[in-house]
Q: What sequence folds into this?
């Protein structure tokens, strides 16, 4: 084919093929397509918004940090350096334009994938690109986006206004000084861009540098972190700081959902071993499990919503991890068990509505077998949306079809985009809303749901459930 190929984002994309069902889905989607975007969990960087300066080039913002893109290209033999990913040894990488051309040359790899859907949306809806990305159009599109990034409406804060992002949560370590959030608060952005408390570096003995991290925690708080009670006091103090900077949630990325309810003497012994780096693998798991229970206890006191994201076998490729570090696309889902693992925590707090525990999974088999029944019973539990490898058209439809009959809609947390790719946020919400409206339309045409109820649910799935799950009904 000669000449540039037009980029077409079909207005009815992802909606059901059957005409009557599609008509209902489109009616529902028309009502929610322009609602505000609520992002109560994600990994964008607070400094982007505090500095509010232009991103340097298309590659550094759209390609290099996006492990969804880089992992696919790496699987087909493309070196990460060719995509601008910097090795730990400081070796040279491709310049931004060359890396962009590499993406364009391999862009057919993303046909019918979530990454392809999101990226096409970003090109067409965010940057008003008119042509499909390929070898011939690569430079034209690069220049077009590079020019757009220099304009005021593409500055980070302006982007939030343009796409009506009502709430955006970043995620920080307890050791973070939250300076960027402090600057945002001074400029009136404190209730819109909030932080999330991610304690993994100081509660997971398997994390590199754990002992030094906990020592720093003690220095920051003035607490005796060598004593179990002092260690917990230090964590409470840092949680208070995060709450002062707008936090509504904690986030826990543990390898499993294991929880524990141990006596103080046992807890002290585990802490001693963790600080001495002598814990066995099973003891590390027990330590993490006890900390989840302690975090739940603290959440009942201070109101922070707990998020549990277990099940990722992180840094599975040792060569990539050694050369490039974490978050380079080598994290792999694995099987996980919830019913017995969560029982110590649920025995203590499962019936307490003051606790809000949003549970995610990468193991689809657990949605129907464990998580929907658990969330459909325990007052504290809310089922998180499909996450990471499951954040896709097919998986999101399977999720709704699997969990709704057991957990209903009210025991789910709506949608959150869980991304570090800022410009893809509206794309991800667009896909989620189309999927949810498609599912509701199926219920309507099979006479399991009345149309007026479907309209109410479409609004709830787009915004209401997320506001309630994260206790932000006051934000409009």
A:
């Amino acid at each position: 084919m000669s000449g540039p190929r037009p980029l077409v984002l079909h207005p009815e994309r992802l909606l059901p093929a059957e005409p009557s069902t599609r008509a209902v889905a489109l009616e529902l989607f028309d009502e929610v397509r322009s609602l505000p975007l609520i992002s109560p969990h994600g990994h964008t960087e607070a400094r982007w918004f505090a500095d509010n300066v232009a991103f340097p080039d298309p590659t550094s913002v759209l390609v290099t940090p996006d492990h969804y893109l880089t992992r696919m290209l790496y699987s087909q033999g493309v070196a990460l350096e060719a995509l601008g990913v910097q090795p730990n040894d400081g070796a040279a990488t491709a310049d931004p334009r060359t890396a962009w051309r590499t993406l364009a040359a391999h862009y057919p790899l993303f046909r019918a994938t979530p990454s392809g859907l999101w990226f096409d949306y970003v090109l067409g809806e965010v940057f008003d690109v008119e042509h499909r990305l390929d070898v011939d159009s690569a430079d034209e599109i690069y220049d077009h986006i590079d020019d757009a990034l220099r304009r005021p409406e593409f500055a980070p804060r302006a982007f939030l206004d343009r796409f009506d992002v009502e709430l955006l949560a970043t995620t920080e370590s307890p050791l973070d000084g939250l300076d960027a959030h402090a600057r945002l608060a001074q400029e009136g952005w404190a209730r819109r861009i909030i932080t999330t408390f991610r304690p993994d570096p100081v509660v997971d003995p398997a994390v590199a540098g754990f002992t030094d991290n906990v020592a720093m925690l003690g220095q920051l708080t003035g607490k005796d972190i060598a004593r179990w009670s002092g260690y917990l006091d230090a964590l409470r103090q840092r949680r208070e700081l995060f709450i002062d900077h707008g936090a509504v949630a904690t986030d826990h990325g543990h390898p499993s959902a294991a929880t524990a309810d141990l006596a103080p003497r046992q807890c002290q012994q585990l802490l001693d071993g963790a600080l001495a780096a002598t814990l066995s693998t099973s003891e590390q798991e027990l330590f993490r499990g006890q900390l989840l229970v302690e975090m739940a206890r603290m959440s009942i006191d201070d109101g922070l919503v707990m998020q549990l994201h277990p099940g990722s076998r992180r840094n599975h490729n040792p060569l990539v991890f050694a050369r490039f570090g974490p978050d380079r696309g080598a994290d792999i889902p694995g099987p996980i068990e919830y019913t017995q693992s969560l029982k110590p925590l649920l025995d203590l707090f499962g019936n307490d509505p003051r606790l809000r525990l949003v549970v995610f999974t990468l193991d689809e088999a657990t949605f129907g077998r464990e998580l929907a029944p658990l969330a459909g019973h325990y007052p504290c539990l809310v089922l998180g949306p499909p996450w990471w490898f499951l954040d896709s058209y097919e998986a999101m439809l399977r999720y709704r079809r699997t969990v709704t009959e057991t957990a209903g809609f009210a025991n789910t947390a709506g949608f959150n985009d869980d991304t570090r790719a800022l410009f893809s946020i509206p794309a991800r919400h667009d896909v989620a809303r189309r999927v949810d409206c498609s599912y509701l339309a199926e219920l309507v045409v099979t006479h399991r749901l009345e149309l007026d109820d479907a309209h109410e649910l479409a609004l709830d799935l787009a915004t209401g459930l997320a506001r309630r799950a994260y206790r932000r009904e006051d934000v409009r």
Notes: The chain has a mean pLDDT of 96.
